[in-house]
């Protein structure tokens, strides 16, 4: 998958882009490690309600739901385990998955703007 350099607020992050249905479905499944300064950006054609699972995911993650104007609208921690659903509380066009706690460790909060290079 292609990688894009993001800035989440003032913090750089290398993010794999998951833009096709197959890429979004696979996500970070079966990954055993994720670099601290890396993540995956899920891209959708328009804002819509999004729901994520931890199906086949081996790493605890945090997810930021991001609106069409590239502003984080919600951050949720996702623990490893089957049968969990993580719906966005509002429509989003993007979702960014990173190692659990990354947003907190970098003082990233709801309202933070994301930019792409």
Write up this protein.
This protein starts with a strand and ends with a strand. It has helices at 21-26, 102-105; strands at residues 3-8, 11-18, 38-48, 51-53, 61-66, 72-78, 85-87, 92-99, 114-116. It has two helices and nine strands, in the order E-E-H-E-E-E-E-E-E-H-E. The protein has a seven-stranded mixed beta sheet with strand order 6-5-8-3-2-1-9. Strands 4-7 form a two-stranded antiparallel sheet. Strand 2 (11-18), helix 1 and strand 3 (38-48) form a beta-alpha-beta unit. It has a single domain, classed as Protein of unknown function DUF192 (Jelly Rolls, Sandwich). The chain is mainly beta.
The second-level CATH architecture is Sandwich
Strand pairing plus helix content: what structural class?
mainly beta
CATH superfamily: Protein of unknown function DUF192
Please tell me the total number of domains. Answer: 1
> In the CATH scheme, what's the topology name?
Jelly Rolls
Task: Provide the low-confidence segments as ranges.
Answer: none
Measured by DSSP, the beta-strand proportion falls in over 45%
Structural shape: globular
DSSP helix fraction:
under 10%
- Overall number of strands: 9
Distance between the termini: 16 Å
Give keywords.
117 residues; mainly beta; globular; seven-stranded mixed sheet; 2 helices; Jelly Rolls; 9% helix; two-stranded antiparallel sheet
